[in-house]
Amino acid sequence: METQFYILLSLKTPKGFVDYGQYFLGNDREAAYGLFEQLKGSADLLASCLLHIDLMETVNELPVKIRTICCTLEELGDNCKLIAREIFRLKNLEEMP
Questions:
Q1: Half-sphere exposure of 81 toward its Cβ, with a 13 Å CA cutoff?
Q2: Which of 19, 25, 46, 86 keeps 20 to 30 A from 92, CA to CA?
Q3: What letters, b where the CB count within 10 A reaches 16 and e where it falls short, cover 49-67?
Q4: Structural domain boundaries, residue 53
Q5: Cα gap 53→86, rounded to integer Å
Q6: Residue 61, pLDDT above cutoff 70
Q7: Cα–Cα distance list, 31 to 13, 17, 20, 54, 72 (Å)
Q8: What is the pTM of this model?
């Protein structure tokens, strides 16, 4: 089974964190880690942080959290633009002969 990477978006509610979005990155570990390194936010997970972005990997078809960052709403917007642009670039490179 091939390892897959994805980015998971979650937000804090009174009952805990709820997932609300995912970006599938494919199976290229280097590309997934490289993209996550470019994201804005903090690795310091404070109780006041309402938005999380997780780098996830599937291992034997089970999700495994690799890293988490906390971000503001403005940083989330910038990160979503960056993720979309990078996925677009990677998918178009795959299509090239």
A1: 6
A2: 19
A3: bbbbbbbbbeeeeeeeeee
A4: 5-95
A5: 16
A6: yes
A7: 31, 27, 23, 15, 24
A8: 0.87
Domain count, the chain: 1
Residues 6+ apart with CB under 8 A from 10: 17, 18, 19, 20, 51, 52, 54
Which amino acid, residue 70? C
Handedness of CA 42, 47, 24, 87 (dihedral sign): negative
How do residues 17-40 score in pLDDT, each as one tens digit? Answer: 999 999 999 999 999 999 999 999
Task: Report how far residue 26's alpha carbon sits from residue 49's, in angstroms, rounded to the nearest whole number.
Answer: 28
* Residue type at 24 in one-letter notation: F
